[in-house]
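Study this fold:
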Amino acid sequence: MNSKKIFLLIFVFGLGISCSFDGQIFRYEFVDGWKNSEIVELNFLNSEESQNKDLFFVLRHDKSYEFSNIFLISNLKLNGQKNIIDTIEYTLSQPNGKWNGETKISTVEHILKYKKNVVLFKDSLNTLTVRNSMRRNNEISPIESLENILDIGLLVKSIN
């Protein structure tokens, strides 16, 4: 095998390992940035016996994302019960501009704490909807599209 094929094989293997999570992940990919009107809906089942889980957002953007934070409005409906609505701000970079997430080539991946110790019943349908709520300083109108956002996901991890 020549060195290019070996490098490609190592790269693909490394990418596969780096994208693995300890838990289930449900992703939504954006075609051309995250439009303000675009509401992401993620439906998920717990296939295990009823147990407590931690929930995290997994947000990926490229290094050209122009903001140091993101505001999300989430609506979580667990086990067919009432909606839990939250508005959350996440800080994505430090004051010096260094990203808080893990940088992989030109992509930055953030694992953002969402809900802790949530009870998910076996085979119960759960739904999370999330949208962004970003505005520029001193402006009322929302930003039409968050360019350079690649995808958002929900990571569901068992509590050890």
In short: The first strand starts at residue 24 and ends at 29. DSSP finds one helix and eleven strands in the chain. The longest helix spans residues 3-18. The domain at 23-158 is CATH 2.60.120 (Jelly Rolls).
